[in-house]
User: What shape does this take?
Amino acid sequence: MERFGDNSTKINLFESLKKVEEDLGRRLTPVERIVLTTDGSITTILESLSEEKVNVRTVLQRIINSEKETSKLLGIGEGDRVNERIVILESKYPLVYAKSYTPLSILEPWFKENIMKEDIPIGRIIRKLKMEIRRDLEIICTINADRDISELLDTEENEKLISRSYVIFYNKKKLLHITEVFSPKINLF
Assistant: This one.
C-alpha cells in the first residue's frame, strides 16, 4: 500500500513497518500498526482502546520564528511566525508525545483561536469546526528517546520508540506538521 504526499512523495507503508520491526528486533503489535498508519484521530483510537477519556497535557506552546527546517516542512518562508506546541496525550499513563507546528499566516481567526487554547486535541478542534482536512503520512520510524521524551512518557532514556510524522492539509495548504512518539504503554489496553 502506497500513500502519496504533497510533493508526490511516496511512503510505502509495508516497507516502513518492516523497517520499524527490524529496528525494534520484534514484530509490531496490532495497536502499534494502527497508530502508525492511521489517517484518523489518534485521540479517538486511544479512547476506543482504553475505554477512557484521553486528556491533553500541554508541555509547551509558543510562537516562534520559523527556522530553515520548519519552513521547509510547512512550505513557508524562513522567519515566518509559527505556533509550536508540545503535548502529551494521556489516560492512566502518558501515551503519546506530540509536537506540532502551525504557520500563523494561513490561519483563519476561528481556527487560530481554537489552536491557541492549550488542552484541546487537534482532532477535536477539526471535528468541532467541521473542517474537511487530509492527513498525509511522511515517515514511520523509530527514535531513541531523549531525556525530555523519556521523562514525559515515563520510559527509559535511549529506549527505542515508534514514531510517525504527518501533515494536515486544509484548503490545499499545509495547516499543521505533527510528529508523534508513542509510549510502549499503548499496548496495555
Q: What stands out?
A: Helices lie at 13-24, 30-37, 42-50, 68-74, 109-115, 122-128, 147-153. The chain is about 30% helix and 35% strand. The beta strands are 2-4, 10-12, 55-65, 81-90, 94-103, 133-144, 160-170, 173-182. The domain at 2-188 is CATH 3.40.1410.10 (Chorismate lyase).
